[in-house]
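SAMPLE LOG
Freezer: B-3
Tube label: C17
Construct: single chain, 207 aa
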Amino acid sequence: MSAEALITFTIASALLSLAPGPDNIFVLMQSALYGRKSGVFITLGLCTGLLVHTTAVALGVAAIFMVSLTTFTVLKLAGAAYLLYRAWSAFRATAASLDDDSQVLPGMSALYRRGIIMNLTNPKIAIFFLAFLPQFTNPNEGNMTGQLLLLGLVFILVALAIFISIASMAGFIATWLRGSARAQLILNRLAGLIFVGLALRLATTTR
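STRUCTURE (predicted):
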């Protein structure tokens, strides 16, 4: 691929990753609640999901979502249900004891899985990749599957860097939040409202 195409794609990927959306809001809120390390593991989970989407697009599987309304509907409702579950958990959450971090901090593997589920249950990401990645390919410059995989990898690396930056910035206030019962309750309620909003947005989305 040409350097110009890669540079253009990288800039576009950075702008898209910075734009407010379910994934970076998810990282921001979870990092503020549980700390930078938690945000990093969620980011790794999200990017693992992006690997699946990239592979699906490269192999043509994602095209199913464009022609099958049933598949699209089932997956988006599953994603909305998961977000509502996260909202319910956030609304039920209580302030953690300063002497017992285990009450508030999920395991890193659980956070990693949370990121994967959050990403894979959003069918719009598969459709977005299907529409976005091919625009930067050129059949005259080599194997199309290889080009799509390369572009997907670049997008993932860009998203990884930006989301970890978001997690780091949000993590600065995590210690203070965990030391303030009132702040924890407020942020948990705010997280719950955001999850409900994201669930409604996903459930009502169309192709």
